[in-house]
Amino acid sequence: MTWIALTDLNQPVFNIRGIGVPADRPGVRPPASAHEILPTGTLMFELRAQREESGPWRFLDFQNNRDWPREITGEISADGLLSMTFKQGVAFSRAEIALPPVPREGYLRVSYSWDAPRRSARLTVEFLDDGRIFQAQSANPVPLPVHDIRALIRNGQSIRLDPALCYISVSSKVEPVGFGKGIRGDTPIETARGPVPVERLRLGDMVVTAGAGNQPVRWIVKRTVPALGYFRPIRLRAPFLGLDRDVVVAPEHRVRLDCIDTGYTLDDEEVLVPAAMLTNGKHARSEARHRLIDYYQVLLDVHDCLLHDGLWAESLFLGTMSRQPELIATTALGVAPVSALPVHRAFKEEELSGFELRNLAASLQMAR
Predict the structure, then answer these.
(1) CB neighbour burial string for 170-191, b if at least 16 within 10 angstroms, e if fewer
(2) Mean pLDDT of successive 10-residue segments in the chain (368 residues)?
(3) 90 by DSSP, 3-state: which?
(4) Angle at CA 65, nearest 5°, toward 60 and 68?
(5) I need a surface site. Which of 53, 141, 242, 316 has the fewest CB within 10 A?
């Protein structure tokens, strides 16, 4: 199994077999029992960290006294300590991370994963605006009852959620973190032998890059994630942006634009722009019909742009993450040999400030 519950705080979805898995599928698991618990799992949500008040901020508060007292709380203290606390009768577990100041109106992705048989848990906080990741380990986690997960997702009388929460999702396994960008499966990538859907690429295949010629594929990262928040897919529409057909990408996946075509003047003729900045209903639009989505990223020895049906978009950027083996182990690259992972320089294309991105997006809206 994987994701079993998610909500945008308005429309809850729960399926103990796995979201989208029909009850009549061969070999499917039976319905949840009355007191079933998840021995392993991940609770993930995104949070808009905009606060003016001083003092602790409890953004999640779940209380349930059915059968025995149970509690789940999420809180950020006045001095920036983010904590997740779980209580079941006399059992208690807590994970916490001391965070640096969060950018004004910044967004956080919080993932709490537990593995009760191994008596270990992990709290991860990702700063979605600049890509920083913070992690902390804890011991002896309290596994979550399935009944509480269902109640949490339904957002009933037993729970108080701050409006700053964007969504909540629960998986029945320990999910990887990081690498929130990517392209949807079935998106073609230009190779030395022609276009190949990303899910059919193999290690060693030679792909066409914008600046480094043909490069071998070193690894292919795949993540199945809720199609919500910073994961909600963006459809880039043909014939705009040089596309021969529509391409679906993650909101923060960066594509290369020719500034001359947009009518916007910069020192460099080409820039990298997050796909979400292009959503204007014409060139790109957000898609809300998915519940889950598979995103792929291609790792090369160099960080460059790959060609997708006429559109250049970036490959997986590692930076210096390969020098942090403990962090790498918790990502979708955890199964790759760390010694074989490259160190990437910052991309050569110009990166714009938020103000410049907004101006560029406005210019694109006016362009034909």
Answers:
(1) bbbebbbbbbbbbbbbebbbbb
(2) 91 94 88 91 92 78 87 92 94 94 85 97 95 95 93 86 94 96 96 97 97 96 96 94 93 83 53 89 87 97 95 94 94 91 76 56 55
(3) coil
(4) 120
(5) 53
